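Hey everyone, long-time lurker, first post.

I ran two proteins through the pipeline my lab uses and got sequence/structure pairs for each. Pasting them in order. The first:
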Amino acid sequence: MITECPYNPQPKVGKVIVYDSTLRDGEQMPGVAFRHEDKLKIASMLSEAGVPEIEAGFAAVSQHELDTIKSITGLGLDAKILSLSRARQSDIDCALKAGVDIVLLFAGTSDIHLRYKYGHIVNHDEILSQSVDAVEYAKSHGVKVSFSCEDGTRTPFDFLLRMYKAVEDAGADRLGITDTLGCITPEGISKLVRDVKAKVKRPVSVHLHNDFGLANANALSAAMAGADAITTTVNGMGERCGNVPLEQFASSMFFLYGVDLGIDLSHLTEISRQVSQMARYQCSVNHPITGENAFSHESGIHVAAIMNHPSTYEYIDPEKVGNRRHLRLGKHSGASYLKKRLADLGYECTPSQLNLILDDVKSLGEQQGRVDDQEFLSIVKRNLNS
C-alpha cells in the first residue's frame, strides 16, 4: 500500500544550513518587539531544536540590541550566532562587540536601490568598493563574513556576479542572494542559484520573502539547485508578508524530499506557539504543520476514514512535528464519530436517538461553527432523557 506520494523526487542534495532570522527579520514584522528575556528564550529553543545558525539581531540598531545579542552569544549555545551589519565599519564594530560568530554584511545592489535608497548618488563602483572594504575590515578582526546583495533578484546578473567575485576575493566566507521583494519565481531562483554557484567558489545562501506566497517553494527550489544555506523565520514572520517559515521548510525537506537538516522536528509546534505568544500575535489556525487545524478534522467522511487509518487524510503523524490530532464536532459531523464519542462517554442510544443527537450537533455547528465537549454532553443528555 502506497502511503507516500510516488511522484516526489528524491534528489541528491548536499548539506543545507538553516540560519534562522526570527530575532532580526522576524522582529521587523510591524508591531512586534521581543523582550530581552524572550530573545534569549527563542534563541535557546532554536538551538535546542538543532537550528545550526541564529541571526540574533542587528547590533548597530541600539545599545539595547547590542547587549541582547551579546547576552545570546554568552549563552554558550550550539548554534553559531550572526548579526546583520551594513557595509560600514561602525556597524561591523557593533557586531564585533556583541561577540558574534558571523557578521552578515549586506549592501543594496539593484539600480533602484542605488538610486533611491541611499542618501547620495552611488554607482556600481562605489558600492563595490565600500563592500570590499567592509569585508576586509571584518575579516581583519578574525570573524567569519557572509555577504548578501540586497534586492539581488532585481540586480543585473553581470553586476551581481561582479559583486560576488569582488567580496569573495576580499575574503567573504559565504555569498547571499536576497529576494527582498519576494518577486522571483521557483524557476527563477533555481536558475539564479545554479548560475551563481557555477561562477563562485564560496557557499551560496538565499534570503527569500513571501510577498507572492512563494517563499517556501522558492526555498525548496533553491535548495534543490544547490543553495548551501536558507534563511527562515518561525511562522514565516517578517516584514510585509514575511519570510520562509522554519516549520514548513524543515518539514518539507524531510518528509517530501528526504533531506534531514539536523533539526528535531518534534520541537516545531512548541516553538511556533511560544514565538507567536511572545510576539503578541495570533498565528493562523490553518498555518501548515503547526497550526491548530493542521491535523484537525470535522467532515464526517474524513473523520470516519481517519478512525480507520490516519494516513487517509494525514500525510504525516502530527506527533512528528509536535502537534496533535483533533477530531471536531460541528455542522459537517457524521454518525460514525458520534457513535465513538458516545461509546467513549459510556452512553448507549437507539438509531433514532443518534439521529436526533446528530441533528442537534449539526444545527448548533451551523450557528456557531464548532460544538465543544460541554455542549455535546448537554445535547446527549437532553436527547437521551427526553
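...and the second, right after it:
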Amino acid sequence: MQGKIGLEEHFALEETLQDSAIFVPADYWPELKARLTDIHVRRLAEMDRHGMEMMILSLNAPAVQAIGSAQAALDLSRRANDFLAEQVVRNPTRFQAFAALPMQEPELATRELERCVNDLGFRGALVNGFSDAPQANQCLYYDLPQYRPFWRVCESLGVPFYLHPRNPLPGWSQIYDGHPWLLGPTWAFGQETAVHALRLMGSGLFDECPNLQIILGHMGEGLPYSMWRIDNRNAWVKTPPKYPAKKKIGEYFQQNFYLTTSGNFRTQTLIDAILEIGADRILFSTDWPFENVDHAAVWFDACAISEADRRKIGRDNAARLFGLNV
C-alpha cells in the first residue's frame, strides 16, 4: 500500500554511532554506519520505493540512557533533539521527530519533553529502556515514584511515549553468560522491555494517568502471546493481585498501549496482536536501519489481513495518534 507511516526509524549522531556497532558483524558496520548517518538521500529513496510517506525519527540506542550523569544525558539529548529538529524542517512532509530524554533525572526529562513538544513540534518521545543510575551497575526504571510528575506532564501534553529496548547491564545479565547470541534483538531486548512495561502496568501508573499512551515495538515484545497467562495463572486460587494497580494487567495493555510491527514481520504474530489488542492499536514500522524497509513493506503489503485493517495499521492509526496532517 502507498502512504505508510513508520515510527521506529532511527538515526545517529557521530557521538552515538558506536553504540550500534555491536549489532552487526564488523564487515557490515560500514553499511550500517552509512544508513544511520543518512536521512535525506538513501532513506528517502527506500521510502519512495516501498510506499512509505513518512518516518518519525529517533536517536539510536542506548545513547542517552547509557550515561550515568544526568547533566551529560541532558546535554546529549538537547544536541540530538536540536539536530533532529533541523532535519525535520528540511522536509516536514516526510519526517517528524521523537524526543530523546535524560530520564536519569525526571525533572530534566520533563523540561526537555516540554521544550521538544511545545517549541520544536515533536510528536512524542522515544526512550531506550531503563536509564543508568549514577551508581555503577544500577538501573532506573520508570515505574519508580519519582517519575510520576514526568508521566503526568506527558499525559497532559497528549503525546505518546515509545519504550524502546536496550540490553540489560552486564552485572544483571548472568542468565546470558556463555550465550551472547541471546542478547540484543534475538531475545534480551524483548525480555527487558516486556518486564519494564509490566512494571509500569502493575505500578498503578495508569490509574493515575488513564490517558497516557505507551508504544512498544516488535509486535509488543512478546506480551500479546502471554497476556492471558499473566492475568489468569492459578485462577482457582482466589487471592487479590500483589501489585498496586486497580485493574487486570490486560486491561491496561488494551487501553494504554500501542504496538508496532518494527522488526517483526510475521503474519501469525500480527494476527495474534490484533486479536489481543485490536487493529486500532497497531502501527506499521520498519526499524530502519537495523532492518530493511523492503522486508517490512513487502511483507506488510501482502500479509493476510483485511484491507481496512491494513490501512488502519499502515497509516490511519498513526495519523490519529500523532495528529499528523497527512
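Reply from user beta_strand_b:
Welcome! Quick read of the second one: Residues 70-90 form the longest helix (21 residues). The mean pLDDT is 97.
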